[in-house]
TrEMBL record:
Native source species: Nymphaea colorata (pocket water lily)
UniProt topology in membrane: Single-pass membrane protein
Main location: membrane
Location of the protein in the cell: Membrane
Protein name: Malectin-like domain-containing protein
Superkingdom of the source species: Eukaryota
Transmembrane spans: none
GO cellular component terms given for this protein: membrane
A Pfam match: Malectin_like
Amino acid sequence: PHVTGEFSLCPSVFLSIDCGGPTGTRTDELGIKWVGDGDYIKTGKTNRVQVTTSYHEEDKTLRYFPSQIKSCYVIPSVAMGKKHMIRASFFYGNYDGKSSPPSFDLQFDGNNWASVTTSLDTTLYWEVIYAPKRDNISVCVARTSPDHIPFISALEVKEFELGMYQTEDTEDVLLKWRRTAFGAKDII
């Protein structure tokens, strides 16, 4: 599948995947179009969470990987050399009834990104900004312990205009450390 104008914001690519969600598209209250993940991954199983402390629809489903050591989403047709922001979201929500949030590794394009330690009732996000060297992006979750099953709730890809997040070297990678809204009265 190719990312089409349906997911673009003049002219940058904007793709939001509801992992484990239904096929087709839906638009959230912010106007963001979400798609199911079936076109981007063929492994794993889907489930709904039991704890619903999140008000985001994309947090109510997830895809988990009980049989694989490493499982990857592949996002095709991205612009090589242009900066992209990749955001991976994880909401455990006691989907398996064990009340035991797992830990696992997160990777992008074969590079280690983060060691993810999930929470029972809080959505956790990891973001990276980089320029892909190929015309696709892979985002993987990898098992680090036999009794910890990796999962993912949502995956977002945003292509930035040239010059945004410009660095000295096209191979520089920016990882989110903290996001601060200076002067904001309300933060969603």
